[in-house]
Amino acid sequence: MWISQHGFIEKILKRFKLDSCRAVSTPQTLSPLPLPATSDQDDVNNPKVPYRAIVGCLQYLVQSTRPELVNAVRTLGKLLSKYMLENYVMAKRVLCYLRGTIDYGLVWRKVESPKLRFVANADADIGNEKDDRYSITGYVLQLNEWTSAYTSRKQRIVTDDTCCAEFVAASECSTMII
Question: Which domain of life is it from (predicted)?
Answer without folding.
Answer: Eukaryota
